[in-house]
Design goal:
With 268 residues, this protein is of the alpha/beta class. The protein is built from nine helices and 13 strands.
């Protein structure tokens, strides 16, 4: 049964400051959605709302928040679930993470299984799942290393492996390519797209590199600041008019002959 994680006509405020205006977004299983836009437009806030991981200072209006919808027309309001129940359905990777834990890479990845533990104890199957994801992310040589001994880019891979270890229907990643070299940026987006298509996962990523998003995304969520967002397939969303509305710059949209996809170029 196919599911989707949705918000409709969402307004969100920090105190009286509007941060999300009339935002609608659908993350379907089997698709990679890239959320992009200028700095300060609310991308990270939107992702946190989708995972129901906002603090008390954020107030949502005109919406019940994120909903998980199924093909049989059943719906689950995410806020009605307990924290562990949400974590069994939605994996979330924040933009920044600073750990003081003296843990190994394997230990960190294993924590992705915590929502399934009883009394905090991991099973052999949990360890096996963590090791599978460590291998999938090609970080097996780091497994026994302390997380303070690895690079920032390597830590990003560890965090992605942990999110996958949660074995959820939906994975939300805030800037997963941050800190990665340009080769692995593309490999990461390609990997996530293939994972969405082959495993039937709904994956959403916040990303600043719109050209990279256009190479791999099934859907684009383009967010102007304090305005209604644009959401849909790239050819419908990424237009010169929508880009100007989002970035306040005249940008050229063209089809790249080698990449066989749309790309953006500044006219400055």
């Amino acid at each position: 049964m196919k599911k989707s994680l949705c918000v409709e006509n969402l307004f969100a405020y920090y105190d009286k400051n509007l941060v999300l205006k009339d935002v609608s977004l659908i993350i379907e299983q089997g698709e990679l959605v890239c959320i992009t836009g200028a700095n300060g437009c609310g991308k990270s806030t939107l992702l946190s709302v989708m995972a129901h991981l906002t603090d008390d200072s954020l107030h949502i209006k005109n919406s019940i928040g994120p909903v998980i919808k199924s093909d049989d027309n059943s719906e689950i309001v995410v806020s009605s679930l307990k924290r562990k129940e949400i974590a069994q359905r939605i994996a979330f990777m924040s933009q920044n993470e600073f750990s003081t834990w003296n843990f190994s890479v394997q230990d960190i990845v294993l924590t992705g299984r915590y929502p399934y533990t009883k009394n905090g104890f991991y099973t052999d199957a949990d360890y096996q799942k963590a090791d599978e994801m460590i291998s999938l992310l090609e970080i097996s040589e780091l497994a026994s290393k302390n997380i303070h001994e690895i690079s920032g880019g390597e830590f990003q891979k560890v965090r992605i492996a942990r999110a996958l270890t949660q074995a959820t229907d939906f994975i939300l990643l805030d800037e997963p390519t941050s800190g990665l070299d340009f080769i692995y940026e593309g490999k990461t987006l390609s990997f996530l797209r293939d994972l969405a298509h082959e495993k039937g996962l709904g994956i959403a990523v916040v990303i600043h590199n719109l050209n990279l998003a256009l190479q791999y995304a099934d859907k684009i969520c383009l967010m102007p600041k304090n305005k209604k967002n644009y959401f849909g397939i790239p050819s419908e969303v990424v237009t010169k008019e929508n880009l100007f509305d989002s970035y306040n710059e005249n940008l050229t949209v063209y089809n790249h002959p080698l990449l066989n996809c749309m790309q953006i170029e500044s006219m400055l």
